[in-house]
């Protein structure tokens, strides 16, 4: 298989890729998507107001329309580098679990994050997200349609298997995933409380 880094460098010269890079960069600026922990983590965060119906979580938290939430975004360029070589799925999960304690620390300490009631957002990987403590719900039909197109485009672009990866599992359905502030701090607010879940046949 060609080196993924070389493939990404070649792809960046293509018009579609330049357009998607420009759109991602614009989106980051427009919605103030920021790194966590000073950078170097696969998770980034944006602050938005929750616009959906009221949600009751397993820990008793009630998320209401207008509450401040942290919208989780994956650093796609960093994620692409994790797909090189073997055990890509394990490395990806390890990076997510490495980032969640940092996110918990920031919610605990950063003044602007104190009103955040939950973290999450749309994801094609909603089944896997339950292993980390997220809960999931369907998205409105139109929102699900246009966001799924974008998410599937990104997955096909950045994953070395491209479109073949979309055929695995439940990659055709986009759902919203949320983890409450309380659950995040309880599960990841103490050092050494979280380890990535292993898939079938994987070892650390």
Keywords:
alpha+beta; six-stranded mixed β-sheet; two-stranded antiparallel sheet; 8 strands; 40% helix; disordered C terminus; YkoP-like_dom; YkoP-like domain-containing protein
Report on the architecture of this protein.
By secondary structure, the chain is an alpha+beta fold. It has one domain. The chain has 7 helices and 8 strands; from the N terminus they run ααβββββααβαβαβα. It has helices at residues 4-11, 15-30, 76-81, 88-109, 126-129, 141-158, 181-188; strands at 34-35, 43-49, 55-56, 62-63, 68-74, 118-123, 135-138, 175-180. A 6-stranded mixed sheet has the order 1-2-5-6-8-7. The chain has a two-stranded antiparallel sheet with strand order 3-4. Strand 3 and strand 4 form a beta hairpin. The longest helix is centred in the middle third of the chain and has 22 residues, at 88-109.
Fold topology:
Layout: H1 4-11, H2 15-30, E1 34-35, E2 43-49, E3 55-56, E4 62-63, E5 68-74, H3 76-81, H4 88-109, E6 118-123, H5 126-129, E7 135-138, H6 141-158, E8 175-180, H7 181-188
Parallel strand pairs: 5-6
Antiparallel strand pairs: 1-2, 2-5, 3-4, 6-8, 7-8
